[in-house]
Design brief:
Elements: E1 2-8, H1 11-21, E2 25-29, E3 33-37, E4 42-48, E5 64-69, H2 72-79, E6 86-87, E7 96-100, E8 106-111
Parallel strand pairs: 1-4, 5-8
Antiparallel strand pairs: 2-3, 3-4, 6-7, 7-8
Length: about 120
């Protein structure tokens, strides 16, 4: 399993985005961080800036959080209606939805196919 730690100035606002917009389930609650499941073996940790290991959030983020889906169009249509998600494009391109979360982390939702078989992969949401 892997945990990707994202540092936020306003962890509660960002937690609302990951729970209520992206549909992630919170598994761990700590005074300075929460951990959410993003797949069967992957997790995203939201950390309050300056707490825990004392890493501070910056305006420019050097990470891209990717989610794999079998239906990028549905995600694109849904995220267009969410004010907490800032879309980078006005239309779906190459089956990839690109935008940012409430604190400017880059989010990609990618529709993937098996390379050896042109059918879509099945991914649980």
């Amino acid at each position: 399993a892997s945990v990707y730690w994202l540092y936020h100035k306003d962890r509660m606002r960002t937690a609302d985005f990951y729970q209520n917009v992206m549909g992630l389930k919170r598994l761990v609650v700590q005074s300075f961080a929460d951990i959410y499941t993003s797949s069967r073996t992957g997790y995203i940790g939201l950390v309050t800036s300056g707490k825990g290991p004392s890493i501070f959030a910056t305006d420019q983020k050097a990470i891209d959080v990717g989610f794999i889906t079998s239906d990028a169009q549905t995600w694109f249509e849904f995220l267009k209606t969410q004010p907490s998600f800032k879309l980078e494009t006005e239309k779906l391109s190459d089956e990839i939805v690109i935008g940012t979360d409430p604190e400017n982390y880059s989010i990609e939702i990618i529709e993937l196919y098996y390379a050896s078989n042109p059918t879509k992969i099945s991914v649980e949401k």
